[in-house]
Amino acid sequence: MRINQIKFGAVASYVSYGLNVVLTLLCTPLMIHYFGDDEFGVYQLVLPIVSSLSVLTFGLGSAYTRYYSIYKTQGDETNMARLNGMFLTLYSVLGLLAMAIGFVASFFVESMFPDLKPASMSLAATLIRLMSINMGLSFPVYVFTANIIVNEAYFFQKIAAAIKMILNPLITIPLLLLGFKSVAVATLAIVLTVGMGIADVWYCFKKLAMKTEFRHFDLALLFDMLRFTFFVFLSNIVDQINWSVDRYLLGALRYQPETEIAIYGAASQLNIYFMSMATMFSGVFTPRVHRLVASHRPDKEVSDLFIRVGRIQFMVLSFILVGFVAVGQGFMRFYTKPEFVDQGVYIIALMLMVPTIVPSIQNLGIEIQQAKNKHKFRAIVYFLVALANIGISIPFTLMWGGVGAALGTSFTVAVGNGLLMNWYYHKHIGLDIKAFWKAILRIALAMLVPLGGAIAIARFADIRSIGQLLLWGAAIVVVEAVFMWTLGMQKEDRELILSMLRRLPFFKKGASK
To answer: What is the pLDDT of residue 166?
Structure first.
């Protein structure tokens, strides 16, 4: 049953993610249309502010999984119950703290963003309160979700996550069509958090027989956990700074910046989807990395896996990026609005996507560092890089608005996440970085001709209709596929794809004939 749950969970996660992306891509232009530029900009401004409250978990989620697994292996039900009680208490208090901070922050919108329009300030305050409630409620709910995962109830967990992931945009779209705006969308998020939280609580107590003990709060264990998770916490702060600071700077430094934030937010959302394509794939190999390191396998074996995964990630991301170079301007006309294209939304999206390719195709290296307990360097370097991002982005934002903010982030991500981490992988982690980039170079060279074609399409094809978008999109996909298949892929890549195709019903029927 466990194997079936894992397989079903994996399929459900990919399918639900794909549906969520499609539905969200439909939601964004509807939001821009029905919210209006100002309200969409305020919504995009508030999102990263409230999401930064998630750092209050201090990265303790990984500690819960670690210690619960230890107690479960030992059959220590008493300490399992005490751990559950301790985390429920702790996360409930932190959730209330997150709500309190959010509500206090809502009264200082005018101080934080003095150049917002008066109506935008009032709306921002309301949205901060609503989103803070949602964030606070999600904290104790997380404990039940983590308990489901650590007990390997993948079937329920993936189905529940898929339902929430799909329901959000699926309900948002009719709300927008009925005339509801950002306050209704933020309220919907609270309803979904409560609804799915109730489902998780029911499953934990009724199906998993989860036990809780609140009388013994082990402070010594908590401090031990905090030492274990400190650098995870630091990494969480870095992520919040790198991917949230630009919108905050636009709100704080630009005059009536609602439209600029709306443009940057739409471009940033695409970049999040772009990066997640790599993360979804590498996550499958996380257990294998830890097994290889724990069993003291040679560095070459770990490095070979790192290279193999990175090659596949680069093939996928380069394929998407070249396609976006070609038809991105036309796509952005429909994804956002024509005026946003004139104001640089396509350029901002490209500036965010290009430097994130390197850390995205090397994100398995993060797991290798953690497995070897050598992740402190990454956390410290990324923290310094995030501070540099703020320092560089401030003058750039003042001079060039959203394009300047994206330029500052792009530069620091390229230097810190690219150059410095590759040096560290080579010198201290034992990965063969020269072989890695040699493998990547073959794919990059294969994509040079398609990239030239993509630039030509972007320069000379004035895409202003869905038909033109599909036509030119299909053309560049065909060119990319031919060059990737003949020059970029290795023999084993082609054999893997062919073997997967042969399993499809259509090919099975053709073979039987």
So the answer is: 79
Q: What is the pLDDT of residue 3?
A: 45
Contact 263, 402 (CB under 8 A): yes
How crowded is the C-beta side of 123, counted as CA atoms within 13 Å? 23
Torsion angle, alpha carbons of 490, 492, 498, 503, to 10: -150
pLDDT at position 327 is: 95
Q: Give the whole-angstrom CA distance, residue 187 versus residue 191.
A: 6
Q: Where are the beta strands (DSSP E) in 187-315?
A: none
Q: Which two tokens stand for residue 104?
A: 């206090």
Three-state DSSP class for 31? helix
Structure tokens at 421: 């981490």
Q: What are the pLDDT digits (tens) for 295-354?
A: 778 888 889 889 988 998 899 899 999 999 999 999 999 889 889 998 899 999 999 999
- Angle between helical axes of 466-483 and 299-335 (0-180°, round to 10): 160
Token code pair at residue 380 = 């410290």
User: What type of residue is 357?
Assistant: I
- DSSP class of residue 295 equals T
Closest alpha carbon to 235 in 58, 365, 112: 58
Count of CB atoms situated within 10 Å of the CB of 477: 16
Which residue do the tokens 């119950």 mark? 81
Alpha-carbon gap, residue 317 to 267, rounded angstroms = 16
Q: 339: which residues sit within 8 A by CB, 6+ positions away?
A: none
The per-residue pLDDT of the chain, averaged, comes to: 85
Rounded Cα gap, residues 208 and 202, in angstroms = 9
User: 431 φ, ψ to 5°?
Assistant: -90, 145
CB atoms within 10 A of CB 284: 11
Domain spans, the chain: 1-217, 231-490
d(CA 60, CA 228): 9
CA–CA dist 381, 425 (Å, integer): 13
Q: Is 405:264 a contact under the CB 8 Å cutoff?
A: yes
Alpha-carbon distance values, 31 to 117, 335, 399, 403 (Å): 19, 10, 29, 22
DSSP annotation of 108 reads T
The H or E element that residue 251 is part of is: helix 219-253
Contact yes or no for 481/440 (Cβ under 8 A): no
Neighbours of 407 (CB within 10 A): 21
CA distances from 37 to 25, 110, 495 (A): 17, 20, 49
Angle between helices 154-177 and 182-206 (to 10 degrees): 160
Torsions phi, psi of 489, nearest 5? Answer: -80, 150
Residue ranges in the chain whose pLDDT is less than 50: 1-4, 6
